Amino acid sequence: xxxxxxxxxxxxxxxxxxxxxxxxxxxxxxxxxxxxxxxxxxxxxxxxxxxxxxxxxxxxxxxxxxxxxxxxxxxxxxxxxxxxxxxxxxxxxxxxxxxxxxxxxxxxxxxxxxxxxxxxxxxxxxxxxxxxxxxxxxxxxxxxxxxxxxxxxxxxxxxxxxxxxxxxxxxxxxxxxxxxxxxxxxxxx
Length: 189
Description:
Blueprint: H1 3-16, E1 24-25, E2 28-29, H2 33-42, H3 46-60, E3 61-62, E4 65-66, H4 70-80, H5 86-100, H6 109-112, H7 117-125, H8 128-138, H9 141-153, H10 158-169, H11 178-188
Helix pairs in contact: 1-4, 2-3, 2-4, 3-5, 4-5, 4-7, 5-9, 7-9, 8-9, 8-10, 9-10, 9-11, 10-11
């Protein structure tokens, strides 16, 4: 069995752990999220990744407001990173950054179910190395946002995140987001 097949199996197992019909989203239940996750993980082109991204963003997340399904979504997206193409990985990082910076206290909370940004960010923090590597090797601004929120929600990670940010400042790939990295260091110092 190939590595891709094993990773796809792992994603399907992770998706199957959740009762998506019982989870709330901004469109009612979250039953459409699993197929969107699989479409995003399997997207081979930027256009396909973008289309799958919007199938998630406009359902689980709307303008930073999160719905109940974002905690299982976060878990599935973290697994999807292991098999996604570069265009898909980019959109996955964008979704994770939106979730990490999202808010869970809004008027529709009774309609969209209980939400915990802290839980989602905690899941991301357990994969901190993935975000550090993406930031250092590709200068991905979404990873700055994710790591910043990890450090804000978990003070024990602050020094590690500051060190990762400082290391990224010496990476040529991160030159275009230097101001973002420096302001993030200032925010958690």
